[in-house]
Amino acid sequence: MEIKPETLSRWMKFIRFHPDLAERFMDCFWESQLTSKQNIISLLEDREMLGNVYIFGGWYGLLAKLIEDSDNLIANFILSIDIDPVCDWVISDLYPDSKHILPFTADMADWEYSWNIPPNTIINTITEHVNQDTYDGWWDKIPSGTFYLLQGNDFFEDPEHIRCSVDMEDFKRMNHCEGSLNEFEFKCDGPDGKQFTRFMTVGIK
């Protein structure tokens, strides 16, 4: 995973000039967060052609920007969707000249796909942050034949994590991806130094 100097500079300037958001923004740079994104990029590079990309739980757009900057990935539009309205503003401030990244504020359960930007690649990095009903409603709306990448973890200690999985089989069952094409899990260090496991699957809906 390559981080271009101009992108790194934008991130550092944002931290410097927006101290009110700096602490939360810097949470994106925990080693576990960066490792997570590195592994996502690596899996996507096996596919190369991504078409229109929908990222649910896009947060401050780091993953969207890494996809846009990658020399090994080809994407049309990259929609970064998050329920926090601040994320929309941050992405617009960070990447005003982006020709690909489109930020949206929305609850994933309410998302309706646009006929003029049909989804080709769907990424959900927040499966542990939503209840089962919300996830099921979101999953049911994904058009058949769409490529997906799902990520979750067993970090039960985080109060924001309300639907963790105990292992990969549990993760696949909860997220309806038993027929995934590939699966991957890796250890991460949490903010308190305690290790947890991230689970990731890719497949076709």
Report on this structure:
The protein is α/β, with parallel strands linked by helices and 205 residues long. It has one domain (5-204): Rossmann fold (3-Layer(aba) Sandwich). 35% of the residues lie in helices and 25% in strands. The chain is built from seven helices and seven strands. It has helices at residues 5-17, 19-26, 31-45, 62-69, 85-94, 132-141, 168-174, and strands at residues 49-56, 74-82, 101-105, 121-124, 147-153, 182-189, 195-204. A seven-stranded mixed sheet has the order 3-2-1-4-5-7-6, with helices on both faces. The radius of gyration is 16 Å and the shape is globular.
Key traits:
205 residues, alpha/beta, Rossmann fold, seven-stranded mixed beta sheet, 35% helix, globular
Question: How is this fold's topology laid out?
Answer:
Elements: H1 5-17, H2 19-26, H3 31-45, E1 49-56, H4 62-69, E2 74-82, H5 85-94, E3 101-105, E4 121-124, H6 132-141, E5 147-153, H7 168-174, E6 182-189, E7 195-204
Parallel strand pairs: 1-2, 1-4, 2-3, 4-5
Antiparallel strand pairs: 5-7, 6-7
